[in-house]
């Protein structure tokens, strides 16, 4: 069996993003790349996500250029991979950002474990006076994708 590799159309890329909820987010701080798994929900040019404060959020606050990769495995050895270049936009817990923050939550909470990757920490966090939860979006600038399918 041989594989056929091709570039995906924009419509195919958006379809993968809309169907996906798991991806890998790349960010960089002080020239050091950092890649982490995230759950996300894609809608209308924005990949919505959630996290607690930490290295990822610190990195994106300093350098808002980020990259998100999502993939879809199909029958046999077929696959599709989408890479998004975008900009980090935080949705703080303020009146100005309230509707965007609630929209992010409404999309993410459709899956019972949406919060796990962003909230579970290997050590206890101190109790804060206000919610430390960070909702954010990756605003898409460029989307590319490739797919491979078995050829008989």
Can you describe what's shown?
With 152 residues, the chain is of the alpha+beta class. It is built from four helices and eight strands. Strands 1, 2, 3, 4, 5, 6, 7 and 8 form an eight-stranded antiparallel β-sheet that branches. It is globular, with a radius of gyration of 17 Å.
SSE arrangement:
Layout: E1 2-7, H1 10-19, E2 22-29, E3 32-39, E4 41-43, E5 46-51, H2 55-62, E6 65-73, E7 79-91, H3 98-108, H4 116-119, E8 134-151
Antiparallel strand pairs: 1-8, 2-3, 2-6, 4-5, 5-8, 6-7, 7-8
Uncertain segments? 118-129
**Largest sheet report:** 8 strands, antiparallel
Could you please say which CATH topology applies here? Pnp Oxidase, Chain A
Fraction in beta strands? over 45%
Number of domains: 1
SSE order, one letter for each helix or strand = EHEEEEHEEHHE
Chain-averaged pLDDT: 86
Radius of gyration: 17 Å
């Amino acid at each position: 069996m041989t594989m056929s590799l091709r570039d995906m159309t924009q419509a195919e890329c958006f379809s993968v993003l809309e169907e996906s909820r798991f991806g890998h987010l790349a960010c960089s701080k002080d020239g050091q790349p950092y890649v982490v798994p995230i759950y996300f929900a894609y809608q209308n040019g924005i990949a919505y996500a959630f996290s607690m404060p930490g290295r990822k959020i610190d990195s994106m606050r300093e350098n808002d250029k980020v990259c998100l990769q999502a993939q879809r495995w199909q029958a046999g050895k077929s696959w599709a991979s989408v890479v998004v270049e975008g900009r980090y936009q935080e949705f703080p817990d303020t009146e100005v950002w309230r509707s965007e923050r609630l929209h992010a939550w409404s999309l993410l909470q459709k899956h019972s474990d949406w919060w796990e990757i962003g909230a579970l920490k290997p050590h206890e966090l101190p109790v804060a006076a206000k919610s430390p939860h960070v909702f954010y979006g990756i605003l898409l600038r460029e989307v590319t994708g490739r797919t491979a399918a078995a050829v008989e």
